[in-house]
Fold these 4 entries.
Entry 1:
Amino acid sequence: MTSRREVPRSRAVMWWLAGTSVLRHLERLGWNPVRHPDRASGRMGEMSEIDGMGTERATCVLARNPSAMTLQGTNTWIIGEPGAEEVVVVDPGPKDGKHLHRVVDTVASQGRRVGLVLLTHGHPDHSAGATKFAGLAGERVKVRAFDPEGKLSDYMGSLDRLRAFSAKVGAATILPGHGPKLDDPLAALDYYIDHRRERLAQVEAAVAAGARTAREVVERVYIDVDKSLWPAAEWSVQSQLDYLRSRA
Ligand SMILES: [Zn+2]
């Protein structure tokens, strides 16, 4: 397939994006609430600076679906080698005709065409528009999907793989599924990894102190998190309890 030749290392890019996009979601679900190296300044990024951001090989088209879970909206990524005729579109986004047309128009304005559509995971804000998008982009366009399970061990495995990959290739940027790009990948990943270890230690301590249910753990550990996120945090804690028990 031509896109394979024109977009080298696409497999690595796919893993990369699968990991980072899921990572952002899990973060919103309470894996890594509140604190973030990019947010030390309190800046979360404006929609206007996310839409159109990118690198030599990547352009972001921001879907207009902002929410507590999607931050400023879902990032649709157009990825291609400089000079290549074909691009890969990662996560076409929600089923929003205006957004999907904007992605098609952006690719066309670059004088290129879509060779492949990749879905990092099945959440509708990333994937619901995929079939419609493929139809708009050309009848030969294929869609391929990943389906990470969302278990904590998978998440931690993704972080470790991303960390190793970033170090190996000297990665300059993480292109996330939500929010601004991260220009210090190792620092960001170390932060997530350390934070995960901290949270696990806190959950272990809460259990040792007598917390018996996920809810009881949340009440002790997630005091610093807005209560509207507690149901999600409870789900997160349940995964952590499962993970800890599986290792006991
Ligand atoms: Zn999302």
Entry 2:
Amino acid sequence: MSKKAIVSLLVLSMIAVACGGTDDAAVEEVVEEVAMTTLEEVQARGFLKCGVSTGATGFTEVADDGSYSGFDVDYCYAVAAAVFGDYSKVEFKQLTAAERFTALSAGEIDVLIRNTTWTQSRDTELGNDFGPTTYYDGQQLMGRKSDGLSDSSTLADVDGLRVCTNAGTTTEKNITEGAGLVGATIELVTVEAFSEAIDKFIAGECDIVTTDGSGLVGRRAVNDALNDWAIFPASPISKEPLGPTYRSNDSQWADIVNWTVYATIIADEYGVTRANIDSFDYDAAPEMGRLFGKNDGELQTKMGLSADAYYNVVKQIGNYDEIFSRNLNPLGLYREGSYNDYWNNGGLVYAPPAR
Ligand SMILES: N[C@@H](CCC(=O)N[C@@H](CS)C(=O)NCC(=O)O)C(=O)O
């Protein structure tokens, strides 16, 4: 919850004395509590608190020196760059899937950017709102080729197998429902952090691990197991639109986070990158100029940010394609031919106009 700012108001109240008709002026001090907006709270604190995962290859990684990197981490940095003009003004809080929504509603974080799927129940019952999808994913399963599984295996092939995943996820619900629908009986083992599920899989305590496809591809890549671990079915068993999540009914903050994502997408539409951002011809592209505070008609100050807030995002973190390629291409995840390609190239990545 937002912290409260104590605001003292001096109220001059004229108290009429009933019989004497004498006017007695009394000064009353009324102490009112006015909630700070999320933006004010973040600005007053001096840094953003961003909820990320406990470890998801390519999305949230922590190096030995304690530094953070990844696709989700970069969007945390991007929001900090928008608010402060300095991407480094962010404190990361690692959260398991089961912890994440409680942490958000308790105000332990300002925004959650953690492989989080936008669902109806999370949107309604759990008091969240969702920003633009930054990664269109879908749930898949991973098993060993030495166990007879292959990239063309189906959900029915997991009949009788032990399936591991982490608790508090769409994953556990989808696999339970999906296996039931195809008549497969599974032994579902849920753990707190997904890394434990991978450890059990490696130790042979699970036959299958399941989560978002990107998570499986990432784990397979870092375990150098491309030749042994099969990911299936080819067509995922669910839709997992992943993106930033914030508390419900927080419109200004929602706008700030949403337009941070849109700015990275629009910059890429215009071919504005970290490298050419200062040599780009903004007069020839007024929309880009408005969004970066270079031309007349900028709207960032109306959102409580500086006019160059989104210039700072792209200058410091890059456009959508730079963020995607830098973090996910090394794992073998590419945009081309996927839902993460542009809308005008057959994908779903799209931003509303900046005007
Ligand atoms: N997208 C799903 C699954 C999220 C999830 O927990 N994914 C795993 C695999 S990528 C993860 O982030 N693990 C890291 C952790 O357990 O902290 C959801 O929102 O429920």
Entry 3:
Amino acid sequence: MRVRPRFFAGAVVAVIASAAAVRIEADGRAPAAIRPLPKTETIGLGAGVVLEFVRVEPGSFIMGSDLEIGDADETPAHRVTLTRPFYIGKYEVTQEQWLRIMGKNPSAFKGAQQPVESVSWNDCQEFLARVTRKTGRKISLPTEAQWEYACRAGAGTRWNFGDRADAMGEYAWIGQNSGGTTHPVGRKKPNAFGIYDLYGNVAEWCTDWYANPYPKGEVTNPTGPPSGMSKIVRGGAWGDDPINARSAYRNADGPDGANNGIGFRCVLLDESPSGEPRRVP
Ligand SMILES: [Ca+2]
């Protein structure tokens, strides 16, 4: 078990769907063969509050790191194949979104557009279940492999913008520029997939149990070990150094653990408007 909180001292987000967002209703659909696949999807939570998702295509990548700066739990670097497209949150879940579903806001750093934090992995499961009950849309946390694949966006470098940490401030709220607090989501540059705040702001829960190191060999649609003591947390947070907010960097905390450096983003599980399967394991 590895629990290393290092960043912890002690609102209405209208995340507006981008102009490129495509919302296809249940009725009046065009045939799948001629209907363009949406690049984004949204789930309405009521009162104008929406969860916005970015489509990620299936593919293979090298997960983890054998870099000299990496930790042992990032090894061995290994090929991972994700066989299904998926939709991942364009932003971290905000306090407005959390409040809309849960009726209270546990965050230490208050702000409607700021990411919710001080939520445990188990708290997140309740949020996800309530969203599904309310909207009929199935959502989850990302698997650790989905998170890293979406984060890298094809980049094998330490960060998805390269190997030089001095560009970090353009992409992330971390120890050097955060002022010791979270910030509204989506204010820094996105990665090549159009996803924001993967590094810093809040670290993000994933579905997987933590194990160190990775199993050897190539894997397809990995979901982590069947059991464990702590759940994966990715991306680093507002108090971290760049080295601890790399694409391959892993952290973990117990599923009941909650602190002001950990939040989450969602993955949309239900079938795409084209009818193609994209249910993840
Ligand atoms: Ca983050």
Entry 4:
Amino acid sequence: MSKIRNQKSEVSNLWICPSSVFHPRSSIFRVPGFTLLELLVVVSIISFFLAISFPLLSKAIIKAKVAQAQKDISSIKSAAEAYYTEYSKIPVPGTDLGASPDVGYTGADSQRIIKVLIGDDTDAFISNREKIKFLEPGQLIQPDGTFTDSWGRQYSMKFDADYDGAITYNGTGHYTRVIVTSYGSNGDDSDESNDIVSYE
Ligand SMILES: [Ca+2]
Ligand SMILES: [Ca+2]
């Protein structure tokens, strides 16, 4: 009799209240996933980290573009100086040699000079008759065949056309044969604050 009473007691302990089993928050029947509050917390945390990381990422991208432009400018300047050493003249059309004041080149004219420096001798007015590769264009080349800076704009150049050993640029004289310029992220030559220039 005592044994039967104990078994009943055990069965009683195993009984589960139906209301707790079918309650929506029951651990047995709870739908796996997040509650609305948990989702809002996760979205808020992700938004917070995006908000603080985006400016840092933008700064890093701008810094990388400036570094690439500085590297390209240095390469173009070195190539122009190597051209001078080889041919005893600057890489500009013959009609500009001896011109005073010194001559600046932008757009299609600067494209012609870069093409000559990479060993393309199709430009008879500048000429690289030995087809010497003074410049490795690298990522200067865009899919459409143009040579541009990190912002997709063409570099500008100014040469010491009058051979006095100096170039005046933005009102200041510099002792150099060539100055190469990227007008920076805004592409604006009147705003020098973000220009990248070879003499700096
Ligand atoms: Ca000069
Ligand atoms: Ca600028």
